[in-house]
From TrEMBL:
This is ABC transporter ATP-binding protein. PROSITE patterns: ABC_TRANSPORTER_1 (PS00211), ABC_TRANSPORTER_2 (PS50893). It is found in: Cell membrane. SUPFAM superfamilies: P-loop containing nucleoside triphosphate hydrolases (SSF52540). Keywords: Antibiotic resistance, ATP-binding, Nucleotide-binding, Transport. One of its GO terms (molecular function) is ATP binding. PANTHER family: ABC TRANSPORTER ATP-BINDING PROTEIN. Gene3D superfamilies: P-loop containing nucleotide triphosphate hydrolases (3.40.50.300). Pfam families: ABC_tran.
Length: 294
């Protein structure tokens, strides 16, 4: 792997606020062209990490390279190569959607067609609407439009679909898939685990400022984490078997039961199940280390 294959390289990142270590030694590589999702509970350090990578927050320790440059020393040219959809919206209440997207496009050397971007985020019917008259979800779509109109090589999306209705989220996912196909590298933070599962090539789970695991959505939590649970009811009550051969278990049950197997279900843990288990284990380990009684 050459340096050109790596869009973001982080080693030993530490960020302290008064009385709080927000990021406590994070290592992270994001490969060029991948969608990487940063997951973690509220206050885990996702936004702080992202803001250091964007050049908006100074780090206390560690090495950071983003598109080959230290963001703490970055210039305008570097800035034009990244796109940002931050958690809080920019406030240009009197401008219309079309005015704003065209205006932002003017800041970049190689922008996308603003009208195509407006269509891609589903705001065509709101072109002439003033920003202050948009709904929360529409406002968020505009944020996404402003983040991608500069045709960035690397796009930061901090909880981009908060407030989206289900249809808008699906539409947004298509936009992200199209950007990825076009070669854009994407760092996504999200609390929607289905979003990460759908979009991300790899995910990183951060808790208490530490990266506790990095892997593909399928491999997270180790081999045992996605083992199927076969559940049914028999004379003794509810039964559950964990197995990586659920078909064989069901076949055995069919031969035991005469007819319908009561309450039969096969459940495969989702990324959300695996994530919650990881966080639970991490919290328990941290409490043990700190001497907190269970
Ligand atoms: N400007 C600040 N001053 C002091 N403490 C801060 C500041 N910004 C964040 N923190 C603290 O640092 C920790 C990490 O915050 P951060 O915003 O990075 O978390 P997050 O993972 O993005 O959370 P969320 O999912 O809620 O957005 C939190 O404990 C937060 O209270």
């Amino acid at each position: 792997m050459t340096d050109n294959d790596i869009a973001v390289r982080v080693r030993g990142l530490v960020k302290r606020y008064p009385g709080k270590v927000a990021v406590a030694g994070v290592d992270l590589d994001i490969y060029a062209g991948e969608v990487f999702a940063l997951l973690g509970p509220n206050g885990a350090g996702k936004t702080t990490t992202t803001e250091v990578l964007e050049g908006y927050r100074r780090r206390d320790e560690g090495e950071v390279s983003v598109l080959g440059t230290d963001p703490a020393k970055a210039d305008r040219r570097w800035r034009s190569r990244i796109g940002i959809v931050a958690q809080s919206s920019r406030d240009e209440a009197e401008a219309s959607v079309a005015e704003l997207v065209h205006h932002y496009a003017g800041y970049y050397p190689n922008p996308r067609d603003p009208d195509e971007v407006i269509a891609a985020v589903g705001l065509e019917s709101k072109r002439k609407t003033r920003t202050r008259k948009l709904s929360g979800g529409q406002r968020r779509r505009l944020d996404v439009a402003l983040g991608v109109v500069g045709n960035p090589e690397l796009l930061f999306l901090d909880e981009p679909t908060t407030g989206f209705d289900p249809e808008a989220r699906r539409q947004f996912w298509q936009l992200i898939e199209a950007l990825r196909t076009g070669g854009t590298t994407i760092l996504l933070t999200t609390h929607y685990l289905d979003e990460a599962e759908h979009l991300a090539d790899r995910v990183g789970v951060i808790a208490d400022g530490r990266m506790i695991e990095i892997g593909t959505p399928e491999s997270l939590g180790g081999r045992g984490a996605r083992v199927a649970r076969v559940r049914w009811l028999d004379a003794d009550g509810a039964r559950e078997i964990r197995t990586d051969q659920p078909t064989a278990e069901v076949a055995a049950l069919i031969s035991r039961f005469d007819g319908e197997i009561p309450e039969l279900s096969i459940h495969r843990p989702s990324l959300e199940d695996v994530y919650l288990e990881l966080i639970r284990t991490n919290t328990a380990a941290a409490e043990l280390e700190a001497g907190v009684p269970a």
